[in-house]
């Protein structure tokens, strides 16, 4: 009885101390208690008491609190203790000091058995509580580790996104630098030979006109001279494009309303001549009546519009629709446009067609000088889009291109707004490239 009370007190103290005792200390106390009770029970009452049950409880707690190998060792120890005590009884070293028959009906024996059950139940309850606490600690540690891992993953994702963005910007800058270097080289070459070419071509353009005036209408030479004049005119246009690239940087800028540029071009002989070559192409303009002004060169901007409309028409060999639109647009964030545009208000010009589109493999090359898919010598020199890109950049603007093969292409031009007013209508006077 005294042993039971002592062990029960130890269990109670262990439970009350709780977190103040380390897990190994608590586990050792709880595991040793049933070993002591079982050993004492076997010595005091033999097989008539709760000794074997306590040793079984010792094995169960050892397994639960320390692990399977410790459970096996505790089972071996329990069998060794029970075997040793049994040997001592059978050899007469130990003898029972009570009458087993009286023990079975004794008030104290039943009280002792109930106390033994209470102690065993208390041991198991406290052991399970201890295990539960350790599991909670492990789970809390795992949750903390998971949170830390999640923070690390988010930081790595942010760093990876930043690195990807930096690499994309680096590639974009490299592309721009490469394009700028090509245009610079081309400008250097053009500046060196353009004037000499103009002098050489002057005769090819002017003399055929003089000869045609003097030749009769039925002269067999007229056709040949017409071919010479047309070739000279095309060569002169190519030289003009070279000069446009060579003179990078618009030296004269004035307030311009791009609606007037668009209206002047669609009323010009150049546009009429373009439509005569593409009779199945229809053009539609949609102009914002409250379009703000921009600062720039009417000559260069007209050339830009002319090249875009010409390319759109030639991209529709079977006919189609060209749509030119002007508007004021607010860019709230850099992600709203394909180009890295600073948030602000812009004048936006859109030229779209329903033509054959541009393959993705060619999208990065369309602004390179002399890159063209047209028939060389018939409809292009490969400088048109390079001129467009150069003019837009010279006006501190941006250009986006979206295209789908078989569905058409859309060029979107962004120009900074100016609050200055148009002083005079210089658009028609400056047009004539």
Structure description:
The chain is α+β, with helices and mostly antiparallel strands and about 425 residues long. About 65% of the residues lie in helices and about 10% in strands. It contains 13 helices and seven strands. The strands form two sheets. A five-stranded mixed sheet has the order 2-4-5-7-6. Strand 6 and strand 7 (about 410-415) form a beta hairpin. Helix 2 (about 25-45) runs antiparallel to helix 6. The protein is rod-shaped. Mean pLDDT is about 80; it is low at about 425-433.
Compact summary:
By secondary structure, the protein is of the alpha+beta class.
Most strands sheet: 5 strands, mixed
Name the overall outline: rod-shaped
Percent of sequence in beta strands: 5-15%
Seen as an oligomer or otherwise, the chain set is single chain
What topology, given as strand order, has the largest sheet?
2-4-5-7-6
Helix and strand pattern: HHHHHHHEHHEEHEEHHEEH
Q: Please state the structural category.
A: alpha+beta
Share of residues in helices: 55-70%
* Cα Rg: 48 Å
* Mean residue pLDDT: 78
> Would you report the number of β strands?
7
Regions with pLDDT < 50 over 5+ consecutive residues? 426-433
């Amino acid at each position: 009885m005294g042993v039971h009370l002592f062990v029960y007190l130890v269990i109670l103290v262990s439970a009350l101390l709780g977190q103040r005792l380390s897990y190994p200390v608590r586990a050792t106390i709880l595991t040793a208690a049933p070993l002591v009770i079982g050993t004492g029970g076997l010595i005091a009452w033999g097989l008539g008491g709760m000794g074997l049950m306590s040793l079984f409880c010792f094995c169960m707690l050892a397994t639960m609190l320390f692990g399977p190998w410790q459970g096996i060792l505790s089972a071996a120890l329990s069998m060794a203790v029970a075997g040793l005590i049994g040997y001592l009884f059978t050899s007469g070293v130990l003898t029972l000091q009570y009458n087993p028959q009286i023990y079975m009906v004794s008030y104290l024996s039943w009280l002792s058995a109930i106390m033994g059950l209470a102690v065993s139940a208390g041991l198991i309850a406290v052991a399970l509580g201890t295990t539960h606490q350790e599991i909670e600690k492990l789970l809390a540690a795992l949750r903390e580790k998971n949170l830390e891992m999640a923070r690390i993953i988010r930081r790595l994702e942010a760093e990876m996104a930043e690195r990807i963005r930096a690499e994309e910007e680096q590639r974009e800058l490299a592309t721009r630098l490469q394009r700028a270097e090509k245009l610079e080289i081309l400008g250097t070459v053009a500046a060196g030979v353009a004037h000499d070419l103009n002098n050489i071509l002057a005769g090819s353009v002017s003399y055929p006109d003089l000869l045609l005036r003097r030749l009769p209408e039925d002269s067999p030479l007229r056709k040949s001279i017409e071919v010479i004049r047309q070739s000279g005119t095309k060569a002169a246009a190519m030289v003009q494009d070279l000069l446009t690239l060579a003179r990078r940087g618009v030296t004269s800028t004035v307030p311009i309303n791009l609606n007037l540029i668009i209206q002047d071009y669609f009323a010009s002989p150049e546009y009429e001549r373009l439509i005569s070559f593409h009779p199945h192409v229809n053009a539609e303009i949609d102009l914002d009546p409250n379009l703000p002004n921009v600062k720039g060169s009417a000559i260069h901007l007209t050339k830009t519009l002319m090249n875009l409309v010409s390319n759109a028409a030639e991209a529709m060999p079977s006919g189609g629709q060209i749509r030119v639109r002007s508007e004021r647009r607010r860019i709230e964030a850099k992600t709203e446009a394909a180009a890295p545009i600073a948030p602000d208000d812009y004048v936006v010009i859109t030229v779209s067609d329903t033509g054959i589109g541009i393959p993705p493999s060619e999208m990065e090359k369309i602004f390179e000088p002399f890159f063209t898919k047209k028939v060389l010598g018939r409809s292009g020199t490969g400088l048109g889009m390079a001129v467009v890109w150069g003019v837009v950049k010279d006006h501190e603007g941006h250009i986006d291109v979206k295209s789908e093969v078989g569905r058409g292409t859309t060029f979107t031009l962004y120009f900074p707004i100016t609050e200055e007013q148009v002083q005079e209508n210089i658009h028609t006077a400056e047009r004539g490239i």
